Amino acid sequence: MNKVILTGYIASDIELKTTNQGTSVTSFRLAVKRPKTKNDTTDFLTIVAWRGTAEFISKYFHKGSGIEVCGIVTTRKWQDKDGNNRYATEIVAEGVDFGEAYQTSQQFSEIEEDDGELPF
To answer: Which residues contact 10 (CB under 8 A, 6 or more apart)?
Structure first.
């Protein structure tokens, strides 16, 4: 099964583009920390989003935003102008959420509650 869920921070500017056929698309780099590494290794992964997901990301997220991405891993091959084979591995986002990374990056203040008046 090809399914990936990532939580991290957007490490590049978001630019919404439109294909010649009118389809919305965006791509960005996602900074994701590896779990249980001694030196807090961070990977920078390329995320690609299409249509409504691309439009949602460009509207509500920006460089530095925390984001959760659910998607699939894809690879593609092409030839550069010199005829050399090139390869890319990308995550195609099927859905995104503000997620825990976004919430923990915000400033919150604790609300003091007086539970003396609760009926239980």
So the answer is: 28, 29, 30, 31, 61, 62, 63, 64, 65, 67
Label residue 31 left, alpha or beta by phi (over 0 means left) and psi (-120 to 50 means alpha): beta
Listed residue (23, 109, 15, 100) closest to 63, CA to CA:
15
CA nearest neighbour of 10 among 101, 95, 90, 71: 101
Burial class of residue 54, CB neighbours in 10 A (0-12, 13-18, 19+): buried
Q: pLDDT by residue (tens digit) across 29-71?
A: 999 998 877 777 899 999 999 999 999 999 999 999 999 999 9
Residue type, 24: S
Distance CA 39, CA 34 (A): 10
